[in-house]
Design goal:
The structure is a single chain. With about 230 residues, this protein is α+β, with helices and mostly antiparallel strands. It is about 15% helix and about 35% strand. Residues about 1-15 have low confidence and may be disordered. An eleven-stranded antiparallel sheet has the order 6-5-4-3-2-1-11-10-9-8-7, covered by helices on one side. The longest helix has 17 residues, at about 25-40. The protein starts with a helix and ends in an 18-residue tail after the last strand. The protein is built from three helices and eleven strands, in the order H-H-E-E-E-E-E-E-H-E-E-E-E-E.
Length: about 230
């Protein structure tokens, strides 16, 4: 699945005119509410494709945007299988549960033992940067639509994601996330729903790609004895 990154970042040149150009008022409003929509929803199912020179990682799971807690299963591609297992993370901590035979999806209830805890690295790790970016894609308030164009937000072009007609826009950048590089692109539906995000990470030449609603959302339960940071 890691090889699909290149396909994710291409906007279909046959589907209409392409930018970049200035946002319309409607586009700015949709971009301003897209992270707030995730927060209103409570949580989203995600597939996070993490770039790596060793082959890449794919995390399939869920993010609870109100509890600020993510949980999923990690599968490596190519040579990068050392991180296979379960992962749960907050803005400051990563819990990993190595597994020899990693399931396709994470168990709804995290195992009660076998976890190793470490601080989330603010830079130098494409995995940790990807986890932090995914967690930052929810906000308890909309962004300021009038300020977005001043911060470099723009319309890039039309596209389709899993049957949804979307607009690809740049900005707002992921707030307070170390390790990001370049712009952040959002694939946003007509109602402001977020369907895909692509963001550069400083530690890798390829971007992280986060797809939403790739499977059914499962309410995130904290690892026993390690409650979420609110």
């Amino acid at each position: 699945m890691a090889t699909a990154v290149a396909a994710f970042v291409v906007v279909d040149s046959t589907s209409g005119p392409t930018g970049p150009r200035a946002l319309t008022s409607d586009e700015a409003n949709r971009l301003a509410i897209t992270r707030f929509r995730n927060y209103q929803t409570g949580g989203r199912a995600v597939t996070i494709t993490v770039p790596s020179t060793a082959g890449g990682l794919v995390i399939t799971g869920s993010v609870d945007y109100r509890a600020k807690l993510g949980y999923g299963v990690v599968h490596g591609a190519g040579r990068d299988t050392s991180s296979d297992g379960l992962v749960q993370w907050t803005a400051t901590t990563v819990l990993v549960h190595p597994m020899a035979n990693t399931p396709a999806t994470a168990p709804a209830s995290p195992p009660g033992s076998g976890w190793f805890s470490r601080p989330l690295q603010s830079s130098g790790s494409s995995l940790d940067s990807s986890l932090a970016i995914a967690l930052s894609l929810g906000s308890d308030r909309p962004d300021n639509a009038e300020l977005l164009p001043q911060n470099g937000a723009a319309w890039v072009g039309p596209d389709q994601v899993a049957g949804h007609q979307v607009d690809v826009m740049t900005g707002p950048h992921t707030h307070s996330v170390s390790g990001t590089a370049g712009d952040v692109r959002y694939w946003i539906g007509s109602d402001g729903a977020m369907y895909r995000v692509r963001a550069g990470v400083a530690s890798e030449p390829q971007p992280v790609v986060i797809d939403f609603d790739t499977q059914k959302y499962v309410q995130v339960q904290p690892v026993p004895g390690a409650g979420p940071t609110r």
